[in-house]
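Why should sequence recovery work at all? Because a backbone constrains its sequence more than one might expect. Tight turns favour small or flexible residues, buried strands favour hydrophobic ones, and helices have their own preferences. The token representation captures these environments compactly. In the example below, the structure is given first.
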């Protein structure tokens, strides 16, 4: 933040957390998560990206997918954006609608 903005915030009694100032996002995540937790976060993000790519590959919009699965478009958007954790049932519904399934593989 620019000094001018910081001064305005101080005048408004806004508290500024400077603990991570100048740190990268990676530094922040490495401090609050274990290596195993970070790996799971990355795998989850990759899985969600694969769902979005698969949907687009079969030329389905979120609305089309909603109609095929009975899952609301807003829920599909939240799943794809990682804002909610989908049930296993919903994952299978989404994948089935795209002609896909899940396969367990070694790490």
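From this structural description, the recovered sequence reads:
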């Amino acid at each position: 933040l620019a000094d001018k903005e910081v001064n305005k915030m101080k005048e408004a009694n806004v508290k500024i957390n400077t603990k991570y100032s100048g740190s990268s996002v990676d530094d922040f995540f490495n401090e609050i998560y274990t290596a195993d937790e970070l790996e799971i976060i990355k795998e989850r993000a990759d899985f969600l990206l694969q769902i979005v790519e698969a949907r687009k590959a079969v030329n389905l919009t979120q609305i089309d997918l909603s109609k095929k699965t009975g899952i609301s478009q807003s829920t599909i958007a939240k799943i794809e954006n990682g804002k909610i954790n989908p049930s296993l049932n919903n994952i299978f519904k989404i994948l089935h609608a795209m002609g896909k399934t899940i396969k367990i593989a070694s790490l």
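A few observations help interpret the result. The chain has a mean pLDDT of 86.
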